[in-house]
Amino acid sequence: MTGVVTGLYRYPVKGLSADPLQHVTLEAGQTLPFDRAWAIENGPTRLEPDAPAYRPPSSFLTLKRDERLAALQTRFEEEARRLVISRGGRPVASGDLTTPVGRQVLEQFIAAFMADSLRGRPKIVSAPGHSFSDTREKRVHVISLRSLRELERVVGRPVDPLRFRPNVILDGPEPWAEFDWIGRDITAGPVSLRISSRTERCAATNVDPATGVRDMAIPASLQREWGHTDFGIYAEVLNDGSLSVGDGLSL
User: Fold this and answer.
1) What is the pLDDT of residues 83-95, one digit of tens each?
2) Quick one: 73 and 170 in the same domain?
């Protein structure tokens, strides 16, 4: 065994907080279920629900430009498709993401909370089978805790792994070993993943996901120490299977 899965996360609404999981059922060629299934338009994006296409992250509210989003805590109730937004531990808005009325309640709160960042009325959008990922292909994002500890050594302080918006967190492999897996297959529990690319980091990683404060310079630190701005890898799911925290990892 090369390592172990220590964390599983999805982000039902792009730009909002992580939804931690203990188990997840994956399908070949897909993202985690409900990962970035919704996004918040910042001005019209001309998204075609019947034929959705990739749109750049700048079309939506994201942490890269809109760090105030991190001050919100969200809970996704999967069975009801309901999103609950809290601030400072107190619920401030909730709504069914699948109904116009439910989305309108959430949009009204976001319009007031993010007024200074908006280019138009915020609109929560979705399309069947579509994920508003930062990649054109449907991928799972994986990071390594051993590499994170190396980054922490360089910056001289703890770094929350959720800064990197991972779907899967691994522990065990040597620091940066994951970059050698490009083009190779790894097995996590019963699921095979083909590693497709490294993840180039942007200014979103500078935002503390717990406070919304832009308090670090992660890409600059990576560039200064290692000559690149990459952290994490993207992987394609090759077969259906259930992945759990605690599952072993092997090459």
Assistant:
1) 999 998 999 999 9
2) no
